[in-house]
C-alpha cells in the first residue's frame, strides 16, 4: 500500500483522514442547522444531544486539530517552507473563516488561523519550553474555572 499521491508532495493517508474528519464535522453540524439545543427539550433528546457531543463532536474536532498540527509540521519541514508562505496560507484560512462566520456562528477556521500564527511564532522554541507551555495551557481552562465554581457553590449554600 502506498501512501504517496502524485509527485510525492502529499500523503494520501493524511488526506483521507482529513476528509473523514471534515465529513464527521459536517454530519455533527447538520444537527445544529435546524435544531437548536433549547428545541430539544425532552430528556431523551437532551441525552442524545450529549451523546452526540461527547462521542462524535469532540472526536472529530480532536482528529482535525491533530491533522492541522501534523500538516503544520510537514510544511515546516518541506524544502519550500518560508514564514511568508505560511502567513499567506493562514491569511487565506482566516478569509474563509470570516466568510463562513457570516453564514454559521460555529466557525472554527478563524481560530485555526489565529492559533496557526501563534504556532508560527512559537514552534522553534526548545522542547522543554514547549512542553511547559503546553502543560500551562492545558491547566489554564480548569484552573481558570475553579474560582468561579467555588463562588457559585458558596452562593447556593443554605444560610445557617
In short:
The protein is 76% helix and 2% strand. It is mostly helical and 160 residues long. It folds into 3 domains: 1-81, no CATH class; 84-124; 126-160.
What would you say this structure looks like, in words?
- This protein is an all-alpha fold.
- The protein has 3 domains: 1-81, no CATH class; 84-124; 126-160.
- 76% of the residues lie in helices and 2% in strands.
- The chain has 5 helices and 2 strands; from the N terminus they run E-E-H-H-H-H-H.
- The protein has helices spanning 12-34, 43-77, 83-103, 109-122, 127-155; strands at 4-5, 10-11.
- It has a two-stranded antiparallel sheet.
- A hairpin with a 4-residue loop joins strand 1 and strand 2 (10-11).
- Helix 1 (12-34) packs antiparallel against helix 2 and helix 3 runs antiparallel to helix 4 (109-122).
- The longest helix is centred in the middle third of the chain and has 35 residues, at 43-77.
- The radius of gyration is 20 Å and the shape is globular.
- The N and C termini lie far apart (71 Å).
- The model is unreliable at 1-6 (pLDDT under 50).
Amino acid at each position: 500500500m502506498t501512501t504517496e499521491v502524485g509527485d510525492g508532495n502529499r500523503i494520501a493517508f493524511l488526506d483521507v483522514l482529513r476528509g473523514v474528519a471534515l465529513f464527521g464535522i459536517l454530519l455533527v453540524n447538520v444537527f445544529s442547522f435546524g435544531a437548536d439545543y433549547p428545541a430539544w427539550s425532552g430528556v431523551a433528546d437532551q441525552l442524545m444531544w450529549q451523546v452526540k457531543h461527547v462521542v462524535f463532536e469532540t472526536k472529530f474536532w480532536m482528529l482535525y486539530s491533530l491533522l492541522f498540527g501534523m500538516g503544520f509540521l510537514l510544511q515546516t519541514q518541506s524544502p519550500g517552507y518560508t514564514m511568508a508562505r505560511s502567513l499567506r496560507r493562514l491569511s487565506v484560512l482566516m478569509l474563509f473563516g470570516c466568510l463562513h462566520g457570516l453564514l454559521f456562528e460555529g466557525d472554527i477556521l478563524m481560530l485555526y488561523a489565529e492559533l496557526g500564527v501563534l504556532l508560527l511564532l512559537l514552534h522553534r522554541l526548545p522542547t522543554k519550553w514547549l512542553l511547559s507551555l503546553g502543560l500551562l495551557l492545558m491547566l489554564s481552562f480548569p484552573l481558570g474555572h475553579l474560582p468561579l465554581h467555588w463562588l457559585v457553590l458558596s452562593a447556593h449554600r443554605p444560610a445557617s
